[in-house]
Structures
1.
Amino acid sequence: MSPAPERSVDAERVRREILDEGSGSEPYVLRDARVRGMLRLDGAEIRRAVRFEACLFDEAVSLEGATTLAVTVVGCTLPGLRASTTRFGGRLDLRRSVIGERDGTESAVDLVHADIAGGVRLDGAHLVAPGRVALEGGGLVARGGVFCEDGFHAEGEVGFPGAELPGGLWMRGARISVGAADTLAFHGDAVKTSNVRLQGLRADGRIRLRGAQVDDLVSLRDAELTGSGSSLMCVGMRTEALDLLFAQPPTGGVNLRNAHASRLQDDPRTWPKTLGLDGFTYDWLGETAGTRREDVTNRLAWLRHQPVYAPQPYEQLASYYRRSGHEDEARRVLLVRERQRRATLGSAGRAWGWLLDATVGYGYRPWIAGIWLAVLTLLGSVVFAAHNPVPNKKGEGAPFNPVAYALDLMVPVGGLGQRDGWHWDEGTVQGLAYGLIAVGWILTTTVVAGVTRTLSRN
């Protein structure tokens, strides 16, 4: 901290000079001074720009409900800035200032429902409000955006719930310290903005963007999130692009339930242990591997990060592959969906599921039934060829053909003229014939059930 200025001035005097109508529109400037007492400009109509440089304020600066032009507090130290419902005709510049106090009871910077025609500049600022809200911007309107970069550090929560920031929210390389992993570090619920740039952000609490509406990009590239529970909460968020290329896996989960991102970029190496993906929709996914087969394998592993089974994420991923022209990958995803669903069923449902999977791959691999048919036809024909059948009516019907007979037993519809023309005196062979008939009905039933399931759900 820089040494206290040698020159001091009374806060009341500063107030009178700022509001002095005789000064016209000439900016008010105060440098390298200590301001004694509380500078209170609540409800005032300030017709000139105000600039403080390298000043030390004994008490908070209050502008609540005021109307003013640009306000600059650069390189200063002050216990707090109160500017709720204030209307700024220019920008609010707080660069490189130290604002707040460790033993206080209020936020460091209060901008609740403030209306700022320009931007809010907090680059290099240090906000001090441990255990409290360091930057309170609920309902803030800042048309020029909010910039918290170049070494910005907040000790306490940073919040913009319901704020409108057409110029974006820029916090690249920022640090938020709340001291408890289960505490909210960043609160951006229902924020409306063009961008949320949190690249390189370090936060030891939770990040929340529930219901946020972002026109362009939400980026957490190279961010380090160590909050517990949901390190990142984006339930219901809408954005054009979402970049989740974290510096390392978040300590807690990432919740994207019912969110939408036209484009998603992520990396399997930084996926969190748990992902909330139920209801999450997207139009494009960044590839996770070099080949399509490896990519779908990774994406299926991505879906398994869900704490509980939900069908929608599988259907969404299959729809994405289908739109991209990769039908085989889509069928693979839907097959895995059915296998995951099977684990949630009762014993009878699981048994039926195993049968559908083994015979027709739940309808997504009907060729498996053909393999079963070929193998059992071969087995039956070998056994039948080694024994002598008995004709049902001597001298009538086609000659015995073991292959046609085995196939005729397993195809319950139609016939090849073999099944009704012969029988067996040997119980074992007759038992095999009955077994093949039963298998034929099972294969037919599962094929019909599997195909019907596939058509009805897709």
2.
Amino acid sequence: MATPSSAPLDIYYLTFNTARTPIDPSILASDFFSALPSTTLLPAIIAISIQEIAPLAPAFLGRALLTPYFDAFTQCVALATEGRLRAHQTPVEADEYSLLLARHVGMTGLMVFIRAGVDVAWVQTAGAGCGVWQTGNKGAVGARLGVKMDRGIEEVTLVAAHLAPHEFAIERRREDWERIVRNLGFVYDTTLGGAGNADPASNENEDDDDTTALLNTMKPMSRSSKPKGLYDTAGPIFFGGDLNYRTSSSRPMPGDIENFPQPTNDTNSPHHLSKLLARDQLMQQRSDGVVLQSFAEQAITFAPTYKYAHSAVGPITTASTDDPDGHWFWATHRFPSWCDRILYTQARSVQVHTYNALPIQATSDHRPVALAVSVSAGGKDVLEAPYPLNPRFAEERAWAARRELVVGVVMFLATTREGQTILVGSVVGGLASWFFLRALV
């Protein structure tokens, strides 16, 4: 059994909109820890927020159809870990990280990895949809961990989110935030201790996988425990994802691209990122106190994370913000924006080390963003939720999941080769049966 740590808890949170395309694990792995400070060899917890994790059909149907997409990130973490340890000339352990959980609500996913030696006492999870009829084409998924530290159990809440798109949809994004706060109810996750809904405190039906081995000593919690809302915690909350806030309420006009940001350290230049950052919708909304109340964000010093043009326009360049010889290739029909963000609460117990964008990945028009922090025990703040938890959140999520299943089946049959094969086979089989029965009459 792991010993509670007296050191701060190092957390590395990465968010990435994968544009419904599987990542290349080896390519992302080479840059995965680029925002991790040199003083931290490896963090205790790795959280990955994934938006547009897969096309709609596998995302809504879930289960085995999503496994390849999650597995690619698991492979990426393993490769990134091996690379960092070798770079520091440190022995590589095969079981350096265990996958604690991989959860999704529709197209938004959350993965949490725990380093060997970190003692997790309990886990709660939550999910909320913000799409049509509360389905999960947009929404949030969260995990709340009870991590044993020297002063007791420290609660850490990790939330992955994807809000409404489009420049003009500022009010829709505010409504999505309200829906998330009202419907993100955290309950004890009984699926982590073994197969199905087995209780982690029981040895029945246990699987011999990493998750079971990690959690089979978890402290049982009452299944009738009252659900907790997003703000109902004594520890820090990390909220990240494609929040979709833009730098304009309308699309660019002809000629606007001439003043899009480019790498420069001249703050007086019209191309300096600060000129566009001053128009950031999320900063304005937070200043008005209508979204992400009580959350903080580290100062942004990196280039906009959206929307990049791909090789059809020019080579993908990942120049730093002050590289005068670099160039950023932007899509012409969108203002460059900082869509991908990570915010946090409990500033007194959270020490931010780095907040930065990773290099462009050829599979997406978004750049990944990473936040490296240390969490110390104590320094609690009492947070007031802007909206109460919806008492019917579980029932409404269940109904939304049924709608997702129907949509997923329809999209699977209509848009995938496997589905079309099944559909054609069913039609041919039905017609053959009809002709056979007619022949018998």
3.
Amino acid sequence: MEIKITTANLEDDTIKTLYNASLNGCVTTLNTLIQNKPLLLHKVSLSPYNETPLHIASLLGHLEFCEILLKNKPSFTNEVDSKGRCPLHLASAEGCTEVVKALLLANEDVCLVFDKDDMIPLHLAAKRGRIGALKELLQSVRGDQKFLFAKNKEGNTILHLAIRLKQIKTIEYLLLQPEIRTAAIATNRSGFTTLEMLEPWPRDFISLKIEEMLTESGVLRQVYMNSTPQQHAASPSMASQEQPNQSTNQEHPNERRKTWENFWSKYLQFQGNWIEETRGTLMLVATVIATMTFQSAISPPGGVWQENTLTGGLNCTTYGLCEAGTAVLAYAWPHEFIKFMTYNTISFFWSLGVVLLLISGFPLKNKVMMWVLTFAMTVAVTFMALTYVFAQGLVTPYHIIQQVYNMRYPRVVVTWGVLLLVVGLIHTLRFVFWVKKRTKLKLHTLRRVFARTNYPAV
């Protein structure tokens, strides 16, 4: 029997070839198909497949293949599969960051495409801990409240999902975003806040870490302040934050205490890992200070002797010989010059210490490391200022030296000292409150653990 090859059969074979190419990411095959059949991509909607080739290529991370499809048929970004998911959903779930970026460049509006579970691409990225995809999605629609407060079928926000699945890195990144911290007070359809998502599950060290992160970022306090007295009683996590002597029927809290809490939350409370965010800038500042202090050591104020001499502006015979390459002012003002070099050296080595810590690979998200770096930079900057003060004194003519001292000490030095005192006080308060919160959180967790195991409470 003779088999007749119809046009329909040829088109089906071409479509199959296209889908096989999308599975393998074969750009050569795709270009050949488009060149031979310019309308091929427009006929994909007539095929029996649920997904478009862009769905498959996005899922598998074939960037170049996706870029060619987007160039020839950008409307593929809006197509959804049988579960209502567009290509951006799949790329976000798999963490294909470069593909996510390409899809957003082609059509930014697909960020708000909801699938059949009412999930947008950001939900899937948060569930799977895809930090790169999260960053691209958040940067694309920065500040869009509809996007940030989007909830799935169960009423969970992106932070709810990340906490439920205990995605530590995702939670840590999300809490650095002010908008996300604002959205953290939302409840899902079960009435659970972000913190209460941990309640139904067994307690472990990851849960403790998440509670600590929520507390330090201010989310726990937001949930407490925005909840009703009934919610306080229903939620052990929030109830534990109440003062023991606070009455449940108290309607008006102390205004002075409220003002202090607002001030602390806005200006003094730890607001994320600022050192991690400014790592490059911190490295640059430390390098500049090290460079300046190094230059001051080899080219001190007043210069150096160009050759060995027993005469000149100073009586070099007092020291036996003024050697070439040594500082001129070291002979005239030896005590002041020693102080200048001491402060300069301290600033130099502390700034180098900061550079060493930054390039050593230590985790800067550790709060102790952040305090060490803060202290080191404070020391480096302070002694850099003292180096300047003594350098200024060394090069100032004697007949106006008193005027320079009068200008320097009452104003500049005192102001700098007060500023250092304020900064030190703030960091001390932060440390004290951090220790207090950690202790309180651990005691609260131990009470809950003992309560569930029927042991006597701590």
